[in-house]
Structures are given as C-alpha cells and as structure tokens.
Amino acid sequence: MAIPSRQLFVCQSFRVKGDPKGICHKNTDGFLQYLEEEILDRGLDMQVVATGCLKQCEQGPVMVVQPDNWWFKGMDSEAALDKVLDGVESGVPPGEYLIK
Asked: What is the pLDDT of residue 53?
C-alpha cells in the first residue's frame, strides 16, 4: 500500500475522559464516508483521518489538509466539503472557509 500524498484530518471532538466534547462530531455525521467516496470518485491521493479535538471549537466543525497546512472552519455541509476538495484539485484553498 502506497503512502498518500495528503491527509485530510476531520475533527471528531475526541478528548481526555471526563472533558465535554466539542461541536465538531455533532455536525459531521456521515461526512467521513462522504469524503472517502468523493476522494475515490475524484481520484485524489488522500487519506481521511478522524482526529481528536483540534482546539478550534468556536470555528467548528474543523478540517485540516496536510501537508498543505490548510485549516478550514464551518465544515457543516457537503457543499463546504466539495469546495475544499475542489481546492485540493486546483491547488487553491477556498478562502471563505480558511482559518487565518
């Protein structure tokens, strides 16, 4: 199995036991599967990774593309996810979702 050229980290709000969970996991139900399918359909060389809390709760749901180090906020719809994947394909991140 080849190592993917990019990783797509999707915050799932996992935290140390006892800490309350953030909002990312509540607003991303089904997104991991959607992303996997879109990445395959587009032929992108990416891996989807569910992560612990990315500490950007006020801007969540949050997603990160590495190694580009693109941090995205408001990932709460398939349309937003599509714009990020479009940006990966074009090499230009969608500015309206970038965390600056």
From this structure: 87
- Cα dihedral sign for 81, 22, 65, 74? positive
Q: Write out pLDDT tens, residues 10-22.
A: 998 777 776 666 7
CATH code assigned at 51: 3.40.30.10
Percent of the chain exceeding pLDDT 90 equals 63
Domain of residue 23: give its range. 6-97
Q: Which of 69, 44, 42 is nearest to 54 (CA)?
A: 69
What is the model's pLDDT at position 20?
Answer: 61
Residue of 11, 34, 27 lying closest to 81 (CA atoms): 34
1 part of a folded domain: no
- Domain total for the chain? 1
Residue 99 phi, psi (nearest 5): -90, 125
Does 49 fall in a domain? Answer: yes
